[in-house]
Amino acid sequence: MTSMVFGEVDWNAADSGTKSDFMRLEEGENTVRVMGNPVQFYIHWVVTPDGSRRKVNSPVDHPELVRRLEDSGFRRQPRWLIKVLDRTDDEFRILEVGPQIYNGVKALYNNSRWGKVTAYDLTVSKGPKGSQPLYSVTPNPKEPLSSDFKARFVDFNDRVNVEKLISPSSSTEVCEVMSWSVDEVSATSTDTATDEDFDFDFE
Known about the structure:
Layout: E1 7-8, E2 28-34, E3 39-47, E4 53-57, H1 63-71, E5 76-86, E6 91-97, H2 99-109, E7 120-126, E8 135-142, H3 148-159, H4 162-166, H5 171-178
Antiparallel strand pairs: 1-3, 2-5, 2-7, 3-4, 3-5, 5-6, 7-8
């Protein structure tokens, strides 16, 4: 099984609290200020025995269970959590993104005219359901954040536990969701994800 990265990553390193701490993207324009590096993790969208669709964090500490999920058609997908300033109400929130938004931000990060994505607001446009691409990312003019936000961002960081949000699901949790017997799944592998550190200039 290939190595997977869970945790803070550079924009080039990828394979995107309470409910009020999460930002939900609405159809149309959503403007945010990115506040730091993305935090990468993996999920599976699964269909439970009762027919409902559920999202579970990939149980990467149990490779045999990951393999069974993928053999059942529930492929592993990368996701990223990004701490943002939601310009709708100037509140700090966590935004979960997939590859379309991640790659849009990454393109700006690698563009010499724009560079550090903490230095300007981004507008994430969401199209109607079924649109391809569904999301697009455009930059706004560079403008420093007011120092008034600093203390509030420190409080936000102290309150949210991103590591808990990206924590791999246990074999017991996944088996309960799927109505599988834990005894049927081999959990003897000790493969674990590795963390990598990258430099990132913070505004």
